[in-house]
Amino acid sequence: MSFVAKRCGVQFSPPSIVLIYENKETNKVRKRIIPVRNFSKYSDYSMAAERLKNHPRHRDYLEGVSQSQLERLHVILRDHLQGFSLDYSLSSFRLDPDEDLNKLDDEELARKKGQMDELFEKNRRHKDDPDFVYDVEVDFNVETREKCSWDEESDDGF
Amino acid sequence: MAGNGNNIPELDQNKYDADEQVKIICLGDSAVGKSKLMERFLMDEYRPQQLSTYALTLYKHTANVGGKTVAVDFWDTAGQERFQSMHPSYYHKAHACIMVFDVQRKITYKNLANWYKELREYRPEIPCCVVANKIDADMKVTQRSFNFGKKQGMPFYFVSAADGTNVVKMFREMIKRAVDYKQNPSDFMDEVMQELEVKLKHSDY
């Protein structure tokens, strides 16, 4: 891959995805503005993100940008078209560790999963990595373990 | 109908009576990483079947246990957690259960008690384990001991679907336990059901 994505964001007017990338062949950093077409306040953010990711003219540049990040950027654009502020969109992605996510619908859950997916992608070992190991076994020392505070004030089973 | 799903071949659960076939179910809250764990274990092999009408994803896997080929069906929820309870057919004929929580969210750990209670209503004896996922987010959690399931003697695994820690080990051990359980079932209800099925077959004539 000769394009390395550095940062990816949105621009509201006209609605576009903005990508800062490095061209590995020339070692130059460039900005690419990808207009988001046929996207309205009623559009499906996840289908639009998938379409863009597979777009023949853009896919090589977007290879290093995850599907979930593109989904979140489309959610921000759609929120804007619906009249919501950027602050509103960003706070909807924030994850409250005490929130019961079982109660959310698909879209609400997708917003929350954004933050989790980011961490997942950051720590992810890919099967194409030269040092990839399929069966990673780590024995965690049982003796040095401290009691977990999550077990306090618990009823049966804990 | 108890989940026999006669019209949908994927949901025909009679196949789980065959010796070379086991069913393993995953339980746990939304977004604890159940599907990510499945995908990490199966890698390129995975071809999930989305049965969205049933809020269900099936993953098929072929394992080798003690020199024998075993077909494993993994049942994963696809949003059924939202109802705080699973359809009885989800538990029907399961041979093992993998219970997952997210080490970054206490509520997912606390909710294990509810999932476990429901599991035992349907499957009082099947082997079960507790899986602490996302340890890559904070390795310090591995220095803590989590007591849920200890009393019941359930194995506990610290895993990460992102970097792969202990994922393959956990799945292999659970497949082995599912096969062992199947060869030596102790669920009384299973035996009653089998007897009833035999009687029903005879009365057909």
UniProtKB/TrEMBL annotation, chain A:
Q: Which GO terms describe its biological process?
A: microtubule anchoring at centrosome; vesicle targeting, trans-Golgi to periciliary membrane compartment
| Keywords from the named record | Cell projection, Cilium, Cilium biogenesis/degradation, Cytoplasm, Cytoskeleton
InterPro entries linked: CEP19
Instruction: Name a single GO cellular component.
Output: spindle pole
* Cytoplasm keyword on record: yes
Gene transcribed to yield this protein:
cep19
Lineage start: Eukaryota, Metazoa, Chordata, Craniata, Vertebrata
Where is the major localization of this protein?
cytoplasm
Which Pfam families does this one have? CEP19
What name goes with this protein? Centrosomal protein of 19 kDa
Compartments, record wording: Cytoplasm, Cytoskeleton, Cilium basal body; Cytoplasm, Cytoskeleton, Microtubule organizing center, Centrosome, Centriole; Cytoplasm, Cytoskeleton, Spindle pole
Residue spans crossing the bilayer: none
Keyword Cytoplasm carried by entry: yes
Organism of origin is Sphaeramia orbicularis (orbiculate cardinalfish)
What family does this chain come from, according to its entry? Belongs to the CEP19 family.
Automatic annotation (TrEMBL), chain B:
Q: Which GO terms describe its molecular function?
A: GTP binding; GTPase activity
Q: Keywords, A to Z?
A: GTP-binding, Nucleotide-binding
Give the superkingdom in one word. Answer: Eukaryota
Cross-referenced SMART domains, in alphabetical order? RAB, RAN, RAS, RHO
List the GO cellular component terms. Answer: cilium
A biological process (GO) annotation for this entry? microtubule-based movement
What InterPro entries does the annotation carry? P-loop_NTPase (IPR027417), Small_GTP-bd (IPR005225), Small_GTPase (IPR001806)
The entry sums up its family as follows: Belongs to the small GTPase superfamily. Rab family.
The protein's name is RAB, member of RAS oncogene family-like 2
Q: Which organism is it from?
A: Sphaeramia orbicularis (orbiculate cardinalfish)
